[in-house]
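Sorry to interrupt, but I need a hand with the structure work. I would like you to pick a protein and set down its sequence and fold. Please put the record directly below this note.
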Amino acid sequence: MVFKVSTVSTSPIDGQKPGTSGLRKKVKVFKQPNYLENFVQSTFNALTAEKVKGATLVVSGDGRYYSKDAVQIIIKMAAANGVRRVWVGKNTLLSTPAVSAVIRERSGADGSKATGGFILTASHNPGGPTEDFGIKYNMENGGPAPESITDKIYENTKTIKEYPIAQDLPNVDISAIGVSSFEGPEGKFDVEVFDSADDYVKLMKSIFDFESIRKLLSSPKFSFCYDAMHGVAGAYAHRIFVEELGAQESALLNCTPKEDFGGGHPDPNLTYAKELVARMGLGKSDTGGEPPEFGAAADGDADRNMILGKRFFVTPSDSVAIIAANAIGAIPYFKSGLKGVARSMPTSAALDVVAKSLNLKFFEVPTGWKFFGNLMDGGMCSVCGEESFGTGSDHIREKDGIWAVLAWMSILAHKNKGNVEGDGKLVTVEDIVRQHWATYGRHYYTRYDYENVDAGKAKELMEHLVKLQSSIPEVNKLVKGIRSDVANVASADEFEYKDPVDGSISKHQGIRYLFEDGSRLVFRLSGTGSEGATIRLYIEQYEKDASKTGRESQEALSPLVDIALKLSKMEEFTGRSTPTVIT
């Protein structure tokens, strides 16, 4: 079929500034006339000509509500902009890590390689007609567009006057694998719908020893449960855990992807992953029966993960440190060593201690996966993570939830080599974590999230905290007036980062209060919600004494929590007496 290109007049729409995770708004905002189209065209205009004309692009996402409409619009705009071919995961489904893998690894039948892709996701935010939608662009390295590109996109949204679109191009059947071919003014245009899991599964099998994980899963001593929270991880869970690794179908929870995530909030934490938390024996009431040995959950687009043992929660900060400490022995991909490790600034310093002990290069970066991507492209980082349930490695340029689960399964298989078939006692998730604390010390850690706070009030709170930093003696007077049993504040600042790869400087990345005993308070405004502001408060205390690493986290952190809430005047500024979520 031959299609024509028409030009549609438009005008700028306010508020199309992409954050570190792309553009996220309510569905009703995206459904406004020209809203999505303006952003997509502004993205095409921000890219160099060879990344668009004659190029191959990936367009897929987590399958949330409005994805199917958005994919068809982007296909028609790609055709009109001279793109040569578009690759779409079946039913629009590709996890964010899978998009990164497809961009980096996949070759078309004619040898074509993708130069980038649009990912349709609002990550861990709810989906549905009244909920959230999102879009972001990833570059040819498989990672999120850098600020130089997102700034251009935003500038373009403020001046856009028109966009081309192939309106007479018929909608492509995205439920059937195959190639649809068309002819346009600039020649051939193809849309290929492909299996969502093939490329990603192949990559995972090249990283991990599936045979050793299969042995672990076949042991009567070992049981596990995986909760996809009705997100896109469900498109991979059956294939990897059941078909490839031999797990029972009953081990999978909520693994059918749904446009509204089954009405839930697809954020893998102790608050929202209620069903898994109950099954793992961590709920408020006893569900009866023995919990599985290992549990894990994913968010909407499958880039985040939560790791649980039987009646035991592993903090994301501990998780990345434990993966780094065990990677060389347990994961074949790392057998020749780690190039370096990195964490986001708010993440606990558990990884720092491992890096120092193993003599590894270590980096502390602002929140945003692109900072890790730069280090990886520079050959400086192998394993990285952030406290917001994101863990990953240099196999792709996004965080990767299923990769983290397979990493933990690999560590469990490695630690239980002689125990799986014999009479030996199973080394559990809790055993691994407690042994890690005994070796490296424990970083007691918690995060308080205050969601949908009035943006003006949130800004005032942050300004108040910056102002306080001008006099550390004054801060210590306030601290001692609240709790005399807490160490003095040694320094306080706003975190700033100079990228060792490209020399770029990122300012105002979070407010830090650093105590003499290694404890920390960090305050950040998060841009991952679609409305209002989210204040994140991070509280950390380091304990080296092995006899004191077994306390309850909230009990150990109670003095610092008290300091943080009173120092920041949290209730006074926000009107909130309790956080929305505690992790």
